[in-house]
Amino acid sequence: MLGIPFLTTYINKVVKVQDVADSVDWLNYYVTSILLGSFAFAISAKQYFGKPIQCWTPQEFGGGWNEYTHDYCFINNMYGVPMNESIPDDLQSRGDHMSYYRWVPVMLALQSVLFFLPNYIWNCLHKKTSVNPRTYVHDIRKCDSLSGEDRDKAIEAVARHIDETLLNFDPHYSQTTLFTGWKATFLYLGIKFLYLVNALGQLVLLNEFLGGSYLSWGFTTLMDVVQGKPWVESELFPRVIMCDFTVRRLANWQRYTVQCVVMMNMINEKLYFFLYWWLLLLAASTLVNFVYYFFSLLVPYFRAQFIWRNVNKSDPTIAHLRRDEFAGFVNRYLCPDGVLLLNFVRQHVGGRTTFDLLNNLIHIYKARLGSSIESSPTLLKGYRNDNYKKNLEEHMPTYKPTGYGPSGLAPPYPGQNDSSDMDFIDNQATLPMSQAIQRTPVRPAMRGTPSAPSENLYASAPSGATSSNV
């Protein structure tokens, strides 16, 4: 099927609901763009294929002159004069000329493009971030359609893929910058700010486009409707206007002033009244949404609260997480970009899949810590492989034995069962292990048996009692 490339691409992007946007974004780039585009199409059809204006022409005008009057007055500026006032003789004082109604379809189409533009920028730039949330949301959506063991394996595979991406946020694994782990978050917040500026800016734009009193007109009109007053004709949208034009007849110029009715202004009045309140409500909801995401993504406490609300608390690994471990998982492992990704998964895939994905990520995180649930808390301070060995050496418990029993380093004497009857010669465990194993344990003679000379009992010890076992 043939079509205009840019227009076809634009329509496909607008109509398709994005996986990396929330409901307020959807109201901005999707609903509002569709509304404005539909309004632009309807007004264009009326203007260019209907009769947007009808003028009361002098009796001497024939068919051709009537058409000329309608067309001329439509494409040139007109002015409004209240019915209870007379038309001024001075041409310069005949009120403000109005020409905006001819540009209403163009303005509506431009507004539609402006509402879609932030989403277009987001779609182009978020792919260049490390997270690329659209890819992961698409993959996890496929997992949600599976069941049983296949679903569990698919979610685990996506979790490991996400884990590989999150490694880019760690300076031990890749070269990082000041904004590593924050780029997608800052970009998304910037897009939301553009939505807010766009909604408020379009109110100001329409105020200038319609004549300077649009901001107060919408509120005043609503108050009149609430109070039960009749809907009166507005100065912004006059339905009856005047038109001046000059006709050359032979060597003379003759000026005519005709009265015209613009039916489009009755439609435009209702249309812009709706847009006034729609843009206000849209700006208010976008502002609240922006503030919510600003704190949810930039403040560590609110990031942790979001993750905690979406984890499977019945899982033993999660239930035994300490507060500092959980803070490390949210702030150092996921980072704001990871939290943003999980927020998209929660909105577009569902809570159950988010629980399972977070469960897998926490297990991977615990595995990277190099410890299990029962491990010493001191071993959990580092969570990367490069730091783990150093951390393990620093926090390894120091064991300084003062005596060894029969199951220790030396074989027992015949009939001896009490390990307290022998003491190692290095009572304070101050010697290195390589030297300590060469020393002879000092043992008392057995009762009723003459004392035997000291000998190195390790020489006859079983092969299992070596320094490696120690």
UniProtKB/TrEMBL annotation:
Region described as Disordered: 397-470
Please note every region of biased composition (Polar residues): 427-438
- Cell compartment(s), UniProt: Cell junction, Gap junction; Cell membrane
According to the record, the segments passing through the membrane are 26-45, 100-122, 186-206, 273-295
Among InterPro entries, the record links this protein to: Innexin (IPR000990)
Mode of membrane association:
Multi-pass membrane protein
The keyword Iron-sulfur appears for this protein: no
Keywords in alphabetical order, please: Cell junction, Cell membrane, Gap junction, Ion channel, Ion transport, Membrane, Transmembrane, Transmembrane helix, Transport
Recorded GO CC terms: gap junction; plasma membrane
Which molecular function terms from Gene Ontology are attached? Answer: gap junction channel activity
The similarity comment for this entry is:
Belongs to the pannexin family.
Free-text function comment from the UniProt entry? Structural component of the gap junctions.
Q: What name is this protein filed under?
A: Innexin
The organism of origin for this protein? Panagrellus redivivus (Microworm)
Name the gene for this chain: inx
